[in-house]
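Would you mind writing out a protein's amino acid sequence and the numbers that encode its backbone to help me picture the idea?
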Amino acid sequence: VKEAVEMTIEDIDHDVVFGMPVKSFAGLFYVELMKGAQRAVDEMNEKTGRNDEIIFMDDNKELNRELSNVEDLLNMDIDAMLLVCMDPSGSVPAFEKCLAKEGLYTVIIDAPCDGSENADAVIVSNNYEAGRLEMEMLAKALDGKGSIIAISDSTNPNA
C-alpha cells in the first residue's frame, strides 16, 4: 500500500502525463469518458499554467491489447495511469504492471479488477445499488403483473 501524500495536483511542479487505455474508442460511453478526462486536463492546464497531457489508447475490447497498451504507456514514462479494466480477472496482469512501476499513480475508473483496492484511487459507481433501485422501480411499475428476466455477465462487474 502506497503512503498517503498530502498534496494536490496543483502542487506538482512539472508537466504531468496521464495514460488512459480505454476499452473501445467506438463505444459512446468511452468517447464521453475520454472527453471528460481531456476536459479535466485542459482545465488543470488553464489553472496551473502547466502543459499536462493525456494519451489515450484503444484496447479494442481485447485483453491482449489492454496489456500491450499499458506496457506501451509505461514505456512512455507517464506519471499516472487512468485504467478502465476490461475484465475483473483478465485485467489483473495489466493492473499489476501499473502497481510495479515505481512512482506511478494508478487510478481505476469505471470498471475495477481483482485487487483494485491497491490502486491509488478507485472511481466507480455503485452498480449494485443502481440495479436494486432500478428493479424496485420496475417492480412498482409492473404492479405484480408480468415477467422479469435477469441477465448476468461474468466478464463485466458493472453488469
